[in-house]
């Protein structure tokens, strides 16, 4: 700060500052950059970090992000009280593109994270099969593999908002949502090895963590696109995501993606485990519970602007951006409204647009000084499903539910650019 830069004279600095000042008057982007940080490190000066040698490569065998990014975190202390039932949220407002970095993947553990030595790992497939088999991790890795990009969403995402807007950020309203490239063996390849006995129609998939989470999966899904995955974003699946092996059920609710997968039993009917009788059911207005809501239906949310990323009173050009997804297939269209759903414009979908994967959308907007806006996005998937309004969803589902809330979300942009979570009840 006090040392004078050796390159870039004071007079040249003065000149360029003046030009930048003119830019600010003309409303050029970047003109405001001088307002923050240490001016000594900013053009036309050579920054301090360019005048000494940085650390080399040997100190860090496994890379980490910039120390200036450590505020971007999934762990939310006030929402993660204990080990037995813990949860963390992906900070969606900070995400670029469609891939969730593995260190920011949301977590949901019912019995904590087991520490599994891959040498001890076994996957047993038994029940109504011709040849019961036990696979080691090596066995799995010898088999033909696939790498596919899919989202996983806990169906409790937004579950606190059935009666009204509560959470003050997209991390809390939608952050039990992540998207990774998963690598592994298609489950149908394993079932081809064990063979299936006549009448086989359901699978029980069980985890080896202390919760022994177990879910009944229709055989048709297992033979379609289910993956027994050992890879996540180019490396081994993370411990929190099921190391060494998890089940990937593209488009199906997150709780069925069994982590630390130990056992697959083939049968001819669902098992009605406590996870599918007591837990993951949807209480309907008539008092009955809907069971086996497998697919996460079409959904979307705007991630910029949002409560964590307000407009801070700076009027002008804004690229509205967000994420859309559907457990039923590809996203084909996303419409965006800035007036609470009175008028809509169609957003651009960013390539790649993949089936059962997060899809990023973008649309330009001019935010006028002091303009109050109600931002909404409405996604449509290739099966023709359209994201419902919260009022339409409540009409069918009531307000007693927790799971599978996929209604259109509203962010209120206030006159000063602050962004607030609200609901429009019509
Ligand atoms: N074995 C096991 N599998 C599990 C769970 C668990 O607690 N144990 N949690 C489930 C739930 S409720 C969800 S939403 C997802 C979360 O996956 P993630 O932690 O990789 O995000 O894993 C599912 N699979
Ligand atoms: Mo979940």
Based on the model shown, name its key terms:
426 residues; alpha+beta; Sulfite Oxidase, Chain A, domain 2; Immunoglobulin-like; 2 domains; five-stranded mixed beta sheet; five-stranded antiparallel beta sheet; 7 helices; 23 strands; 13% helix; 28% strand; binds the ligand Nc1nc2c(c(=O)[nH]1)N[C@H]1C(S)=C(S)[C@@H](COP(=O)(O)O)O[C@H]1N2; binds molybdenum atom; Sulfite dehydrogenase; sulfite dehydrogenase activity; molybdopterin cofactor binding; molybdenum ion binding
Set out the fold topology.
Layout: H1 10-26, E1 86-88, E2 107-109, E3 123-127, E4 133-135, H2 137-142, E5 146-153, H3 170-174, E6 177-186, H4 187-194, E7 202-207, E8 214-218, H5 219-224, E9 227-232, E10 235-236, E11 246-248, E12 261-267, H6 274-279, E13 282-283, E14 289-290, E15 299-304, E16 316-325, E17 331-337, E18 345-346, E19 348-349, E20 359-367, E21 373-381, H7 390-397, E22 410-413, E23 419-422
Parallel strand pairs: 3-12
Antiparallel strand pairs: 1-2, 3-4, 5-6, 6-9, 7-8, 7-12, 9-10, 9-11, 13-14, 15-16, 16-20, 17-18, 17-21, 19-20, 21-22, 22-23
